[in-house]
Design a protein that fits this description.
Elements lengths: L1 H65 L10 H12 L15 E10 L10 E12 L2 E12 L9 E3 L3 E5 L2 E3 L2 E3 L3 E4 L1 E6 L2 E6 L4 E3 L2 E3 L10 E4 L27 E2 L11 H4 L8 E3 L10 H13 L6 H11 L3 H8 L4 E3 L12 H18 L2 E2 L3 E3 L3 E3 L8 E3 L1 H4 L12 E3 L3 E4 L9 E8 L3 E15 L3 E10 L10 E5 L3 E4 L35 E5 L3 E5 L4 E9 L3 E5 L4 E3 L4 E3 L13 E5 L3 H4 L11 E10 L4
Parallel strand pairs: 4-7, 4-30, 5-8, 5-31, 6-11, 6-34, 7-12, 8-13, 12-15, 16-18, 17-20, 18-21, 19-22, 20-23, 21-23, 22-24, 23-24, 24-25, 24-26, 25-27, 26-28, 28-30, 29-31, 30-34
Antiparallel strand pairs: 1-2, 2-3, 3-35, 9-10, 13-14, 32-33
Helix pairs in contact: 4-5, 5-6
C-alpha cells in the first residue's frame, strides 16, 4: 500500500515538473517575443523619426530658398524649382544618428504645375517632398506638400487681421484664423441695443482649424490672451472682461494663453475648443503677404484697358494720376474704352421734344445694355443703382469673359463705376437680381436685399451691407459662385437676418470642395456667399443678427467679432436670449464663418496678386504603399 502511495507521489511530482516547465517556456517565449516586438517598434519609431528629419531638411531647404526677406520674383520661380529638383532628388540627408541606424534619404518625388505660367502671370505650384528612411530593413515613408502662389495671404484664412483679433463670445469658425499682432479671446459678447452697450456671458468660441499668432515681446510665449467670465443668464451693463484695458493691467482680467497644459492656465486648444492637437502656429508677421488696395485697384484698372508691355511703368503712373479725380479718370479712359454717361436724374418735360427724345433714346440704350450679356470693359460715368427694375435690371458678363480659361492677366474685362455703386433689389421677385462681373468702384458701395452674385468688387470708398442676402449665382453647370469684396474703407454690415430664428443647426459637408454648407431647413437664415476684406478696422455681430458666411472676413486693421448662441427676441430694454450656459452646440452660433477655398478658382481673374511668391506648408502624411 505504501508502494502504491509512493508511485502516486512520483507521478504528481513529474506532473508538477511538466507544468512548471511549460510555464517557464511560455514566459521565456513571451519575453523573447516582447523583446522582438520592442526592437521592431524601436526600429519603426527610429525610421519614422529619420524620415521626418529628412522631410524637415528638404522642406527647410526649399523654404529658405523662397522665403527671403524680399521674396522671389515670379520670373525666377521656374529656374529655382528646376535647381531644387536637381539638388534634392534622391540626395541623402545629413540625419545620421549612428552608423548602425543608417541614413534617412529625402527627395522631391514630383512637382505638379497646377497653372500654366506662360498664359497666366499668376502661378500655383505644388511641390511634394517624399522622404524615406530604413532602419535594419524597417522602411517608413512620409510626404509633405509645399504650395507656391502669388495670391495674398489675407485670402487664405476664414477670419483674421494684420492687427489685433478680438473674439468676444462664441462664434463658430471653420477654417484657419490669423492675428498679425495679438489674439484676445473671451467668453463674453459685446453688443449695442437701442444705443446702450450691453455684455452677455457665453461659451468660448469653437475653431475647426489652426490659429496663426505671433510671439510675445519677450519671445518666450504667445501674443495671445484670454479672459473667462462668470456665467450670467442676462446681459449686463458693464463688462466682466474689458477689452479696452491693456493686457497686463490689473483691471483687464486677461491672462496669457499657455502653449503647454498646466494648473491654473488655459491652452489655445481650450480657449478655442479646437479638436486639432496641433492647432497653434507662429507665423512671422514679416512673411505675411497682405493686400494693398490702392495698388491692386491700379493693377485691375490696367488689366481693364490692356497692359502696355512696352512701357508699363509709364502706364501705371498715368493710371494713378487719372484716379485722383472723377473728371481726370473720365478724360483718361474715354479714348481707350466705352464710357457711358448716366441717365438724367429728372425726366425732361415731354413738351421739350428734343430733350425728351434724347432722354428716351439713352434710356432704351441703357435698358438694352443692362439686359444683355457684356463682353468688353465699360465705364459708367457717375453714380449707379442696379435695382432689378426696367432699366438697371442686372449686370451680367458672359461666363467665358468673366471667368476666362486660360487666364490672361494682361487684359481682362471689367465694369468700372466712376462714382458710387448701389445694388438694391427692388423687384417684385426678390430672387431675380443677378450680378456676374468683375467691378471697380471709385466711390462707395452699398448692397441691400437679395442678390445673386458671381463677382469680385474693389471699392476705394466705404461699404455698407444692410438687410442683405448675398447668394451664389449659379454657373451653367449649376455650381454656386460668390462675392469677393475688397474695400479700401470700412465695411459696415448690420440688420442681417435680424432676430431671425435658427430652425435647424448649421451643417456643412466636410467631403465637399471648400466645406460647402448644407441646407438643413428652408426657413433657416440664408448664408452670405462672400469673402470680405477691408483696409480698415472691422466689427461684426452675431447677436441680434444671424451672420452666417460661406467665405471669410479679413481686416487690415483690428477685427472684433461678437457672437452668442441660439435664438433671441428683441425686448424694450435688451435682447432676450436663451440661457447661454445650456447651449453646447457650436452649430447654433449666430455668427458662423465657413471658409470657402474655392474663391481662388471661381474668382481667379478678379483676385489681387502680389509681386512676390508666397509659400504655404501642408501637413506631413505617412505613405503606406510604395509607388
Amino acid at each position: 500500500m505504501f508502494r502504491e502511495e509512493r508511485g502516486s507521489a512520483l507521478l504528481l511530482v513529474l506532473f508538477m515538473v511538466l507544468i512548471f516547465s511549460i510555464l517557464g517556456l511560455a514566459v521565456l517565449s513571451a519575453s523573447i517575443g516582447g523583446a522582438t516586438r520592442t526592437e521592431t517598434k524601436q526600429k519603426d519609431v527610429q525610421s519614422l523619426h529619420l524620415a521626418e528629419k529628412a522631410l524637415n531638411e528638404a522642406a527647410a531647404y526649399i523654404m529658405s530658398d523662397f522665403e527671403s526677406q524680399d521674396g522671389v520674383n515670379i520670373d525666377e520661380v521656374q529656374n529655382r524649382l528646376d535647381d531644387i529638383t536637381v539638388k534634392l532628388n534622391g540626395r541623402a540627408t545629413s540625419t545620421l544618428l549612428d552608423q548602425d541606424v543608417g541614413a534617412a534619404r529625402g527627395k522631391i518625388h514630383r512637382i505638379e504645375f497646377i497653372e500654366n505660367k506662360k498664359e497666366d502671370s499668376s502661378l500655383n505650384y505644388k511641390i511634394t517632398i517624399d522622404a524615406e528612411a530604413t532602419v535594419n530593413n524597417v522602411t517608413r515613408r512620409l510626404t509633405q506638400d509645399l504650395f507656391l502662389d502669388t495670391f495674398p495671404d489675407s485670402l487664405k484664412y476664414a477670419m483674421g487681421s494684420e492687427g489685433t483679433v478680438l473674439i468676444n463670445g462664441s462664434p463658430y469658425i471653420i477654417g484657419d484664423i490669423y492675428a498679425g499682432e495679438a489674439l484676445k479671446v473671451k467668453n463674453e459678447a459685446e453688443y449695442l441695443y437701442l444705443g446702450t452697450p450691453l455684455y452677455q456671458s457665453t461659451k468660448f468660441p469653437k475653431l475647426e482649424g489652426s490659429a496663426y499668432v505671433q510671439k510675445n515681446a519677450s519671445g518666450d510665449g504667445l501674443n495671445a490672451y484670454y479672459c473667462e467670465t462668470v456665467s450670467a443668464t442676462s446681459s449686463q451693463t458693464s463688462p466682466q472682461c474689458d477689452t479696452l484695458v491693456n493686457v497686463g493691467n490689473s483691471n483687464s482680467g486677461y491672462k496669457s494663453i499657455s502653449e503647454e497644459e498646466g494648473e491654473g492656465v488655459k491652452t489655445i486648444k481650450e480657449v478655442l475648443t479646437s479638436t486639432d492637437p496641433a492647432n497653434i502656429h507662429v507665423k512671422d508677421q514679416s512673411k505675411f503677404a497682405g493686400i494693398e488696395v490702392n495698388e491692386a485697384f491700379v493693377d485691375k484698372m490696367i488689366q481693364a484697358i490692356g497692359k502696355n508691355k512696352l512701357d508699363p511703368d509709364f502706364q501705371r503712373t498715368n493710371v494713378k494720376t487719372a484716379l485722383l479725380s472723377r473728371e481726370s479718370l473720365t478724360n483718361y479712359l474715354r479714348p481707350l474704352i466705352e464710357v457711358i454717361d448716366p441717365l438724367d436724374e429728372v425726366e425732361p418735360d415731354p413738351a421739350n421734344a428734343p430733350a425728351y427724345a434724347a432722354y428716351e433714346e439713352k434710356k432704351r440704350n441703357l435698358t438694352a445694355l443692362f439686359s444683355s450679356e457684356l463682353e468688353n470693359t465699360i465705364m459708367y460715368n457717375g453714380n449707379l443703382t442696379i435695382d432689378g427694375g426696367e432699366v438697371f435690371s442686372q449686370l451680367l458678363y458672359r461666363e467665358s469673359v468673366k471667368n476666362p480659361k486660360p487666364l490672361n492677366l494682361n487684359k481682362s474685362s471689367w465694369f468700372i463705376v466712376n462714382g458710387d455703386l448701389t445694388i438694391n433689389n427692388m423687384s417684385t421677385d426678390k430672387s431675380l437680381l443677378d450680378i456676374r462681373a468683375n467691378i471697380l468702384v471709385t466711390g462707395n458701395l452699398s448692397i441691400h436685399n437679395t442678390v445673386n452674385m458671381d463677382s469680385t468688387i474693389y471699392t476705394l470708398g466705404k461699404t455698407e451691407i444692410v438687410d442683405a442676402s448675398i447668394l451664389g449665382l449659379k454657373d451653367p453647370d449649376g455650381e454656386e459662385k460668390e462675392l469677393v469684396l475688397i474695400s479700401k474703407g470700412a465695411i459696415d454690415i448690420y440688420r442681417v437676418n435680424s432676430f431671425r430664428d435658427i430652425k435647424q443647426p448649421f451643417k456643412y459637408n466636410s467631403e465637399s470642395a471648400g466645406n460647402k454648407p448644407e441646407k438643413t431647413h428652408e426657413d433657416n437664415p440664408p448664408i452670405l456667399n462672400a469673402f470680405f476684406y477691408t483696409d480698415s478696422d472691422a466689427t461684426i455681430y452675431g447677436v441680434g443678427s444671424v451672420f452666417w458666411v460661406y467665405g471669410g472676413f479679413f481686416a487690415k486693421g483690428n477685427l472684433t467679432v461678437n457672437a452668442i448662441r441660439g435664438n433671441v427676441i428683441g425686448q424694450v430694454e435688451s435682447i432676450e436670449m436663451e440661457n447661454q450656459s445650456l447651449i453646447n452646440s457650436e452649430n447654433l452660433s449666430r455668427l458662423i464663418i465657413d471658409y470657402n477655398s474655392k474663391i481662388f478658382e471661381n474668382q481667379n481673374a478678379g483676385l489681387p496678386r502680389v509681386s512676390k511668391v508666397g509659400l504655404t506648408v501642408g501637413k506631413k502624411k505617412q505613405v503606406t504603399e510604395f509607388k
